[in-house]
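tokens incoming
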């Protein structure tokens, strides 16, 4: 299996590119560790397209490719993960695994129960989180990188327009499971308002709270904006475990 890289630069800048370049750490790794030479073949993602690519020149700072045939690749899952900020090492693990599972977007949420020192430091961590997503995308052989938005307070995030279903993982919900909520959306009858006309192609939004869960005021705000509260079962899960479990369950509905 050929190694896969995600290009930093490509040309032309729109449509199907024909040339691509790796820079910085990626180029250094390819040049010094893998000892790439002109003529070697790798898989390179450029502008969202996966290609078989031939190395044309190598330096410690740049590796240039000519892109050959386009290869078949899987698209990202149309899932937007709204993940409340919690302990950074656990949060970063969640970003890594969510990327591996294929989510399209991740928004770090500053919730009421997000610890204050974490909320203050979160904006400075956003670039690190994007690097983690990049490395995880390469490791899992994705053809794209999930969008990692800047951290945002919950009230600001929740007022954004959401075109698809909106799912809230809630400790106060005891009966409606995530799987049942998604299954109901495909049945005849009267699905929840958030699921009307959903055809599994529009984006699904999943909101996961911090340690301690959402406050009553936050749950009321979700309800006002027509989010559907669901449970993952009787056990109390860590936030990062709940996020990965929810993505995995949702993914089975997109794949079905």
């Amino acid at each position: 299996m050929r190694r896969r890289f995600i290009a930093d630069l490509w040309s032309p800048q729109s449509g199907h590119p024909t040339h691509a370049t790796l820079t910085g750490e990626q180029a250094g790794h390819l040049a010094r560790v893998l000892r790439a030479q002109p003529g070697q073949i790798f898989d390179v993602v450029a502008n969202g397209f996966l290609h078989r690519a031939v190395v044309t020149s190598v330096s410690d700072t740049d590796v240039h490719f000519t892109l050959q045939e386009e290869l078949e690749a899987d698209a990202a899952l149309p899932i937007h993960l709204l993940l409340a900020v919690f302990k950074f090492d656990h949060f970063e693990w969640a970003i890594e695994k969510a990327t591996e599972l294929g989510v399209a977007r991740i928004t770090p949420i500053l919730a009421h129960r997000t610890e204050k020192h974490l909320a203050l430091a979160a904006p400075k961590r956003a670039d690190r989180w994007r690097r983690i997503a990049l490395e995880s995308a390469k490791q899992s052989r994705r053809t794209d990188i999930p969008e990692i938005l800047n951290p945002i307070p919950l009230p600001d995030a929740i007022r954004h327009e959401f075109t698809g279903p909106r799912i809230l993982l809630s400790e106060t919900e005891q009966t409606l499971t995530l799987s049942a909520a998604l299954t109901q959306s495909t049945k005849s009858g009267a699905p929840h308002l958030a699921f009307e006309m959903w055809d599994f192609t529009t984006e699904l939004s999943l909101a996961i709270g911090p340690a301690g869960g959402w406050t009553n005021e936050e749950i009321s705000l979700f309800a006002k904006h027509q989010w559907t509260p669901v449970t993952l079962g009787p056990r109390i899960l860590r936030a990062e475990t709940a996020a990965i479990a929810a993505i995995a369950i949702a993914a089975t509905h997109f794949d079905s």
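note: The helical segments are 24-33, 88-101, 116-139, 154-158, 178-184, 216-224, 239-255.
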